[in-house]
Design goal:
By secondary structure, this protein is mainly beta. Helices cover 6% and strands 25% of the residues.
């Protein structure tokens, strides 16, 4: 997986460029959006030991229920939003998720469903720190990459609830310490699909124009 951020020295780099492009093309808002770093890999099946998550420091957030058929937005939005969503599923890198940018990082990242953490990424590759969340009832896998190093008692096999904090937006696994974003994947039966239509994205969150496929 290659880094998503160009060499622009401004703190938001690609975000600023895409915001300008979005303004020209018409920023896409929730309700009009259907749109997205290659993280292909085998389905991480649940472990044999079902261990409740120990919230040593963090507590679950009170996250509003999404509309039927939608997932909660996986990143906490601060009062003055610094969030920007890239519509980059299936771009020229065979990107199998979408990237949710946060200006300075540190935003809590949520479990979007009740399930089991089946794999922890430990910053040994381009995924950085992260988790795989598996929901046995629906056979859907969710992947979270580029977090900061903050396990807070979570481990492979931990059971989590929707709204539990899995970590924080970071830049691990990229080649830039300021490339703060969450790479988020949705994989029904281990087949990656575009997460954008599935997420309840607040109307004031900007979504960039679709990134071209090859």
């Amino acid at each position: 997986m290659s880094d998503h951020r160009p060499s622009d020295p401004r703190r938001f780099g690609r975000r600023d460029a895409l915001l300008a492009a979005a303004a020209g093309a018409g920023a896409i808002l929730l309700g009009n959006t259907f749109g997205g770093t290659a993280h292909a890999g085998p389905l991480d099946e649940p472990g044999s030991a079902l261990k409740p998550a120990k919230r040593l420091i963090l507590e679950p957030r009170s996250v509003p229920l999404p509309p039927p058929g939608k997932l909660i937005f996986p990143v906490e939005i601060p009062p003055k939003s610094n969030i920007y969503v890239l519509d980059n599923f299936g771009d020229c890198r065979s990107h199998e998720g979408i990237d949710i940018l946060a200006a300075n990082g540190g935003n809590p990242v949520f479990a979007v469903a009740d399930g089991q953490l089946t794999k922890r990424y430990t910053n040994t590759g381009t995924a950085g720190w992260g988790w795989t969340l598996y929901v046995a009832a629906t056979k859907v896998t969710y992947k979270y990459f580029h977090l900061t190093e903050d396990p807070y008692g979570l481990r492979e096999g931990s059971l989590v609830k929707r709204g539990d904090v899995l970590g924080f937006v970071g830049s691990s696994g990229t080649n830039s310490v300021t490339n703060f974003h969450l790479h988020f994947e949705v994989r029904p039966n281990n087949v990656p699909v575009n997460p954008l239509p599935l997420i309840d994205i607040p109307a004031d969150i900007l979504i960039g124009p679709p990134q071209p496929s090859c």
